[in-house]
Amino acid sequence: MLRKITVILIWISLLGYLLVSFSFVNEKKDAIVLHDIKVKIKDSIDSGFVSNKDVEKIVKKQYPDWEGNSVYAINKEILEEKINQVPYVKKSEVYSSLTGNLVVEIHQRNPIVRVLHGRGYYIDEEGKKMPLSRKFTSRVLVVSGAVNEQLIKEELFDLVKFITNDEFWRSQITQIYVTSGKEYILVPRVGAHKIELGRIDNYQKKFKKLYALYTDGFTKTGWNKYKRINLKYENQVVCTKKN
């Protein structure tokens, strides 16, 4: 019985200590005022769509009297929603430090293809559209020709992901051209030839044939001997030589 009472008293003491500690921390946090904005763009080395000044501008527009105010004067959830409306932002996180900094962490969207249709736009790895930026140009695969949103959704996006997710093809293929008949022509980084992939059917099998040509055939004949490589046929690769 005595042991049981001792355990209960220990738990009561511990609970009291925690309540006092939380109260002390909250009182201390109430006393903290903001004096600086710290922006951390996690992937700034890879992309430059969003700058520190862009984020600071949003904060100051939403809360013009932020400086010298309590940390509780900033609704962090609302500010995150506002920042996330920027089309280049994938995710933001806002929090305050005990030293009086309002910290904003930014994760940018990652474009994998640039579509040259109309004014042009990017598509990120999640399939979402991103407008082009005046400040930064992402070096990604380029798509042009008879491109529309339905084609992108139904088949083109899968082809783009296949190329960009493969280290070899990502380094080799720089552009995709789509004909009015929904056939695909690939433009490589090395060599003066064009690759006629044909329609999207069995495209992975076609890339296997192309890989064999690149890693075996071209090592013997060279990269600049042909002007066209046709992968449309089932069991063969047709190469047209330059005149």
From TrEMBL:
UniProt KW keywords: Membrane, Transmembrane, Transmembrane helix
Species in which this protein is naturally found: Marinifilum caeruleilacunae
- Membrane-spanning segments: 7-25
Q: What is this protein called?
A: Cell division protein FtsQ
Which domain of life does the UniProt lineage start with?
Bacteria
